[in-house]
Amino acid sequence: MLYVNKINVSYGDIQVLYNVSFKVDEGIITAIVGPNSAGKTTILRTISGLLKQRSGEIRFKNANIDNLPPHKRVESGIVLIPEGRKIFPALTVMENLRVGSYPKKARSVRRASLDEIFNLFPILRERENQMAGTLSGGEQQMLAVARGLMSKPKLLMLDEPSLGLAPKLVDSVFETVKNLSKTGITLLIVEEHIDRVLEIANYSYLLENGRITLEGKGEDLLNNEHVKETYLGI
Amino acid sequence: MLRIKMLRSSLKSKQLELLLMTLIALCIAPLMSKSTYFLHVMIMIFFFAFANNAWNILSGYVGLVSFGHGAFLGLGAYTSTLLLLNFGVSPWIGMIAGVILTSIVAAALFLPLLKLSGHFFALSTIAVREIIRLVFEYTPYVGGAMGLTIPIIASSSLYYFQFSSKIPYYYIALTLLLVQILILYKMERSKVGYYFIAIRENEETAKALGVDVKRYKIIALVLSASFSAVIGTFYAQYFLYIHPNSTMGVLISVEMLLSAVIGGSGTLLGPVIGAFVLIPVETVCRVYLGGMWEGFHLVIYGILLISVSIFAPGGIYGKASGLLETLRSKWRKGK
Description:
heterodimer; A: alpha/beta; globular; B: mainly alpha; two-stranded antiparallel sheet; 14 helices
């Protein structure tokens, strides 16, 4: 579904990604794991068009999307749930959801999407008219995901969905991700909680210092000596 | 649950009642008091409420703080006045011409500034406004530093937007304000309004959710400039004298944001509430302290501005609705 081919990305003079290539297959969960500052967020920002790669190519559904601005990429089905939730605190829960629901294809099915989302996150229905800033951390993360779902994504990219959440909530976040995958959405997830995400991902890549150093099925990566030693401390 | 809903709807209807009563009071006020002084204060309140609402679109909702809105107000005033003086065009038509011209100038000169953000945007708006003001000051054709005086053409004529009594100005200003509030009310609850706020709260996230940030910033800029031009024409016809400094200067540009900031920027009623608080302060100061303490109202404005920044960063409206929200949630918990 998504092909990233040898992209090089820099912030000013500092290069962050070196010849990064990977693919995301339709209908499964793909994960990119790696330590802090490896460039994981940069990958997602490049795919959603917030950053431009210096070289390399990104193809989505067999079309080159390199020259599409971010909002066109959203219309074609690529939606990013940014790191740190970033809900709009001064808007109510409902208004936050509305902001996500305006891309052309999503607009006509807004009612249905809302019902689906309230099924998935019943707590949001209860909080419908509350200012989003007054939600708890976990609820805000749900809202951020729900807001992304309102634009009917084909590929949903999650940036560190477990960041800053209590362990119990981390469980429920990953549970949600699994459930989302069952509804047929393709997911690309970036995480530092390596062990947890590898358990649910169908295919994973390890990113270190801006380079993909390892790839494979989730359990393969979990059993890899290098991963075990460096990241899992076993 | 049901009781909460009932409470909410009763609150809504109470708000509606209050709104209607205020509206009726405003409509019949000129009939009750024939004092031109009172009418002038009210007209200035409507004027500044309108001007601050205009500023609020770009700076309150989208968060691009501008100190340059005097340029838009001045361009509106000059366009209609020059058309009237040279070609006898009705100021109402001049108003529309002003809106069109101001939108074009805003798009041409302020568009490049939209790439800047935060303090840099604010500073650059001062520069562009000052350039426009200086051009007017040094162009004899538009009156130069002397400004333009609109002669009395008719004692009372809707066509020429001139009246000897203040009452027509009162109703015109009130109507303009009400129409504007209605438009902004619609805007606030539409895609455009939500996108504006999304851009203010987090530009990157807005982009990632499919907001064409650049496009919506331009929409905000043009809307904001257009409303400023409309009230510029009103300014010219009310005072019958315009001057680069009074219509495009730094003072008017700051006054175009004061009520909004003190009342609550980025909200529908904030600027209006702010104008109702600030303008009476100014007039009272001018009348009672005029001779010796000229400009004393600016001291009070300063004190108010500092107090609001410290104690109510969301402005009077923000503070009030915040208090209401806490009360409501307390009531909910107590139940």
